[in-house]
Amino acid sequence: MTKNQAKILLMQRIKYDPISSSGLTDLNGLPVGTLNHDGYWLIASKKWFFSVHVLIWEMHNGPVPTGLQVDHENTNRGYNVLSNLRLATQAQNSANAGIYSHNTTGIKDLSFNAKTQAWRGQIMCNGKSHSKTSKDRSKIENWLIAKRNQLHGQFARHS
Fold first, then answer.
1. Cα distance between residue 2 and residue 47, in whole Å
2. Which phi and psi (to 5°) does residue 54 adopt?
3. Do residues 8 and 56 share a domain?
4. Does residue 22 share a domain with residue 81?
5. Rounded to 5 degrees, what angle do the CA atoms 27, 31, 18 make?
């Protein structure tokens, strides 16, 4: 059995339920899926694991086109309500990421250089780095918001 065949069989045994913790239930209404260490809900079928958010997207919209991913608009990987899911490129999905855990400024893409006593904003987009440096933190914060909006549009995430 191929992975695609396993997915087809699985999708015949589950249904979308936005009230369920994972977003899916079996045909008897019992929640299905396992929350993994990265915060994604997974469901197993045969020897494969399937991401619940992708299954939900495909139940309602068909296969995810090549080169696209299913993005959680609010960045909560476990919140699989259909209205929170959208198609995105890898770059758009990355732009929609929240603040990294090692961030010490509390502002996405902002860092402080103690040696130069200057703030730096840096955004990556399609492999290109965009940066600005200033002694004025608010100037860099405002630049970051404007630049994210310019580069990422509806996928811009400021926090």
1. 10
2. -70, -40
3. yes
4. yes
5. 90
Rounded distance, CA 149 to CA 156, Å?
6
Q: Give tens-digit pLDDT for 17-75.
A: 999 999 999 999 999 999 999 999 999 988 999 999 999 999 999 999 999 999 999 99
Residues 71 and 40 in one domain: yes
C-alpha span between 79 and 41 (Å, rounded): 9
| Average pLDDT value for residue range 9-16 | 96
Asked if 96 contacts 75 with a C-beta cutoff of 8 angstroms, the reply is: yes
Name the residue range of residue 111's domain: 99-155
- Provide the CATH number for the domain around residue 62: 3.90.75.20
Cα–Cα distances in angstroms (integers) from residue 1 to residues 5, 47, 131, in the given order: 6, 10, 50
Spatial separation of the C-alpha atoms in residues 70 and 87, rounded to whole Å: 5
3-state helix, strand, coil in the chain (%, to 5): 30, 30, 40
